[in-house]
Amino acid sequence: MFKALALVAAILFVSTPYAVAAPQAHMVFFTLTEPNDANRDQLVAACHKYLADHTGVIYFTVGTIAEDRDREVNDTSFQVALHVVFDSPAAHDTYQTHPRHLAFIKEAGPLWSGVKVFDSNLVAASAAAAPSAAAPQEKAAAGE
User: Fold this and answer.
1) Where is the signal peptide, in residue numbers (predicted)?
2) Which CATH class is domain 23-121?
3) Which of 1, 70, 103, 142 has the most other CB atoms within 10 Å of its CB?
4) Are 36 and 80 in contact (CB under 8 A)?
5) What is the pLDDT of residues 19-45, one digit of tens each?
6) Whether 63 contacts 99, CB under 8 Å
7) Domain locations in the chain?
8) Directed axis angle between helix 99-108 and helix 37-51, to 10°?
């Protein structure tokens, strides 16, 4: 009987999905005190110097506002955007208190007058719910 229970427990243990922390996105939008090309370039360079290559970073990029995007829904209150995706919330937390992140704030902080931060937990496409069947209009448009 003990062997049977041990076997069932082992099967359940192996077949149970482990709770894995979702990747966490950290999106930061900077409004410059003086929005000129020199300050934009300086802030972008500081992001690369201090914020790239942290442990747990699976995606890093920094850039400037796409000024050609002027739809009503576009927020144009920033000049520089930083996008970092961490493999876990723990990696994000470590980054926040890392000496290089703190040095970035100290050195580059005078360049900005405002910062908006958007942190989110990411859901992989394979983990998302399967989409329902395409609406009849979509099928007709696709020639189905």
Assistant:
1) 1-21
2) alpha beta
3) 103
4) no
5) 567 999 999 999 999 999 999 999 999
6) no
7) 23-121
8) 170
Secondary structure of the chain in HEC code, one letter for each residue? CHHHHHHHHHHHHHHCCCCCCCCEEEEEEEEECCCCHHHHHHHHHHHHHHHCCCCCEEEEEEEECCCCCCCCCCCCCCCEEEEEEECCHHHHHHHHHCHHHHHHHHHHHHHEEEEEEEEEECCCCCCCCCCCCCCHHHHHHCCC
Two tokens at 132?
């329902």
* Tokens 């400037």 belong to residue: 64
Take residue 4 and report the two structure tokens written for it.
């049977």
| CB within 8 Å of 105: residues ≥ 6 apart | none
Beta-bridge partners for 85: 25, 59
pLDDT in tens, 56-106: 999 999 999 999 998 999 999 999 999 999 999 999 999 999 999 999 999
Distance, in Å, from the CA atom of 93 to the CA atom of 83, rounded to the nearest integer, reads 16
- Look at residue 9 in the predicted model and tell me its pLDDT: 45
User: How many of the other CB atoms lie within 10 Å of CB of 7?
Assistant: 10
